[in-house]
């Protein structure tokens, strides 16, 4: 009998369960050509005794090997290495026993996308100030998934799979067209809609189709960094235009247009990222006029439209009398859960058709059950009810945060209360350096998601925190500031 | 009192429910400036009587208007148009009452991705021969979603959202690294893995990083069309190399390498799309040698590895002694459900890092609950058990289809039985024109998903059909052929 003890080493300190260690060892031995096809294995009892493990462990290992076709189990419990082994000419393999680590040895140039973001391990933080995310404890995600399961369980396979869902399911697009009409005054048909894998994909698709002209793209300064990165990756010349409390400086855009060809203006009209300011009515109207006169496309990234509190929201530019040159972008990730990546793009039909073809190349399309489940939630008003509820809660949290900041940090910070959205933009006076503050907080296991060193500011996402959590967080910041002042 | 009957028209032929018609009409009137902020509405009883609808319908309409903040309901049931209306300077809007349709008026050039695929409406088909998809009636998707709900319901918000999941959740990558080692002999760490939104995204990302060199890319002829489209979109020069029953003609690749710089060879080693042939062992070894000698990258699209029946599967090229220049692509869409879009890419760490950054620009990342739910299913062996079961069923279906084709269409077709996968490649003799056949079948409401006019062939996805469905489908094809022969 084959000396199995020589090929099976069990290390109880490994995370891999013992039964899998046995299975993996046997597979490796077959791969190395040490165990030949047809070799009989010990009975489970014998093997258990040999390896000094419970017999159930060996049964589990054999079950696994059998599931993967490495062994054949014949009725009266004879077990042997399968005759049909997935082997690729084992002789060749024995030449070099050790497979080299699959790392960094690619000696062929590839396009570099940019500096690598090495995420810090989350385990090292106890708490996180996000950049404006919903409180998933309030989200109707459970209802969404219940609907998903119902839809996926319907057994009408064939006709369903025949559908071309790259543009998004027809059901979701019809419901969404109604929803956008009712909530935003955007009157479109389902042909003006492309369902995307989140708002970012809408930005990416829009930029790919528009920015390749190598004419300039105008963005705010500061701007949503992930939009800038997309334009940079496409080699589109970026022109930064200052932001003030009324949003993008539209007069500056006019002067730029007089001098140079502008192809795209990227604008976040509500609760701008990161500054949270809202574009004023006058500037909206002027921007629309400029877009006609100078023939540029407006990418209107309205990711945050659904959340407005004290003041009335403005209708999107896309709902106005425009000239077929607005790409409107929105998302349900801020409504449901950042993990649920359903966004959309509203644009003229010919643009949507091309964006759909590009999207097909990227990932074929989205999850049709998830899309239809969302359609059901929209149709049954569950999304509206959730938003109404969430708005009340977030409104309170915003006001609570403003109060706490004023009380605890009043002398160190300045901020204005945003009319909506999920985050506040906190600027520090020059006595406090935001980078130093973030480092001090990181030592206390609190991580800040979005800081801006130039503006000496950070985004405080209040929506995801309950009032007590807000209090504790502001208190931690206060302590860190006191610590900083003492040290400096 | 305002003459509401003049602004509310109910059309019972519309699909829009009556209560929503009422709500939409009121919203429009507010938007047009006809109904001013503060205007009182009729009580629900009065309005119901005026419009001749049930009072519950009006209550639903008011609830909806209230949910959207268009009206204010004061305790004793006084209802009026909200004072805080989302209006953008209504005077300006009245100039042009009719919002133009949002269509085709974009007069700015954009990059065209390609000819538009106009999908035929599915309603017009009763039945569909797909190009090789799993039978979702067998899929463990319900178990996946149950796990998803459990994971999403855990209320530890903050630390979770702090994670950077663009590369895929750490949990799924660790489980997948184990799974790939056990099932495919690919020994990697989780840093060699990028979780993508389906295999197509892996192709897209790989091609973006590699094909921009403007040196040639080798593909099979025929090839998976969506891969060719990606390379075309990136302006990579495509060189087509013939396929025979052993797969890509590797000698031809060698001769090409001697003449010109090749940067990428895209290969589908198992059950090639569309022809279903498998690359032979000898050619695999030679391809690896060539990749070293001529310094090209192999994109190994092994979308179908999990399904092999009669003959032994070969281990992937990526499991062999290679030179850090293989991008290995796989997917769980064929295991679970085409709607569940989880694929992966295995590559050297520096390549994975850049692919991750590019993926971040495209869509930030995937659904982390879905990924963790899949990790749980892999860990608990549910995926292995499902595959074992599904393989048996699909094996039977493959053999049943081969038998049916031989019996019913033997004199008109030629095909070889694929060693695995989910589809058979059926070539028609020159007496039958595949295009004509497809049109005849379409008249009988049967649609074929993948036909190739040059090869006069189509892919018959057998995995998704039960045996009786296979019989009925083959019978329909037989009848259509008889019809064709009679007419010609």
Automatic annotation (TrEMBL), chains A, B:
The organism's superkingdom is given as Bacteria
Q: Which SUPFAM superfamilies match?
A: PLP-dependent transferases (SSF53383), Winged helix' DNA-binding domain (SSF46785)
Q: Which residues form the HTH gntR-type domain?
A: 16-84
Q: Which InterPro entries match?
A: Aminotransferase_I/II_large, HTH_trans_reg/aminotransferase, PyrdxlP-dep_Trfase, PyrdxlP-dep_Trfase_major, Tscrpt_reg_HTH_GntR, WH-like_DNA-bd_sf, WH_DNA-bd_sf
Molecular function (GO) terms for this protein are: DNA binding; DNA-binding transcription factor activity; pyridoxal phosphate binding; transaminase activity
Pfam families xrefs: Aminotran_1_2, GntR
Q: Which CDD domains match?
A: AAT_like (cd00609), WHTH_GntR (cd07377)
Q: Which UniProt keywords apply?
A: Aminotransferase, DNA-binding, Pyridoxal phosphate, Transcription, Transcription regulation, Transferase
Query: Keyword NAD: yes or no?
Result: no
Per the similarity annotation, which family is this? In the C-terminal section; belongs to the class-I pyridoxal-phosphate-dependent aminotransferase family.
Q: Which PANTHER family match?
A: HTH-TYPE TRANSCRIPTIONAL REGULATORY PROTEIN GABR
This chain belongs to which protein, by name?
Answer: GntR family transcriptional regulator / MocR family aminotransferase
């Amino acid at each position: 009998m084959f000396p199995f003890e020589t090929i099976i080493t069990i290390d109880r300190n490994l995370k891999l369960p013992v039964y899998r260690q046995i299975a993996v060892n046997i597979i490796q031995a077959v791969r190395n050509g040490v165990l030949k096809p047809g070799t009989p294995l010990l009975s489970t009892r014998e093997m258990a005794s040999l390896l000094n493990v419970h017999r159930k462990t060996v049964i589990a290992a054999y079950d696994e090997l059998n599931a993967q076709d490495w062994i054949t189990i014949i009725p009266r419990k004879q077990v042997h290495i399968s005759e049909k082994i997935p082997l690729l000419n084992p002789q060749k393999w024995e030449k070099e026993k050790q497979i080299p680590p699959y790392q960094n040895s690619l000696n062929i140039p590839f396009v570099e996308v940019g500096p690598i973001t090495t995420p810090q391990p989350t385990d090292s933080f106890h708490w996180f100030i996000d950049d404006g995310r919903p409180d998933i404890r309030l989200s109707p995600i459970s209802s969404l998934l219940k609907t998903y399961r119902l839809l996926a369980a319907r057994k009408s396979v064939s006709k369903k799979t025949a559908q071309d869902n790259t543009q998004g399911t027809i059901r979701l697009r019809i419901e969404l067209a109604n929803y956008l009409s009712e909530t935003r005054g955007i009157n479109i048909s389902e042909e003006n809609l492309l369902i995307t894998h989140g708002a970012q994909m809408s930005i990416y698709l829009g930029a790919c189709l528009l920015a390749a002209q190598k004419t300039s793209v105008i963005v705010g300064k500061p701007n949503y960094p992930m939009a800038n990165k997309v334009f940079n990756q496409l080699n589109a010349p970026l022109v930064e235009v200052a932001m003030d409390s009324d949003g993008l400086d539209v007069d500056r855009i006019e002067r730029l247009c007089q001098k140079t060809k502008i192809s795209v203006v990227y604008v976040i009209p509500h609760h701008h990222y990161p500054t949270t300011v809202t574009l004023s009515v006058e500037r909206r109207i002027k921007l629309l006029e400029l877009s006609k006169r100078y023939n540029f496309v407006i990418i209107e990234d309205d990711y945050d439209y659904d959340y407005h509190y004290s003041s009335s929201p403005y209708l999107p530019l896309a709902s106005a009398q425009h000239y077929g040159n607005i790409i409107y972008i929105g998302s349900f990730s801020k409504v449901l859960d950042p993990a649920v990546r359903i966004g959309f793009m509203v644009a003229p039909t010919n643009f949507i058709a091309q964006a759909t073809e590009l999207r097909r190349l990227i990932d074929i399309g989205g999850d049709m059950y998830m899309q239809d489940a969302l359609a059901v939630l929209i149709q049954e008003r569950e999304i509206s009810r959730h938003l109404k509820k969430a708005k009340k809660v977030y409104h309170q949290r915003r006001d609570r945060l403003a109060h706490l900041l004023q009380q605890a940090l009043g002398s160190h910070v300045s901020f204005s209360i945003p009319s909506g959205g999920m985050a506040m933009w906190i600027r520090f006076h020059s006595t406090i350096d935001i980078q130093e503050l973030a480092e001090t907080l990181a030592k206390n296991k609190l991580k800040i998601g979005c800081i801006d060193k130039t503006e000496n500011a950070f985004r405080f996402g209040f929506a995801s925190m309950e009032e007590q959590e807000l209090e504790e967080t502001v208190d931690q910041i206060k302590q860190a500031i006191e610590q900083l002042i003492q040290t400096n």
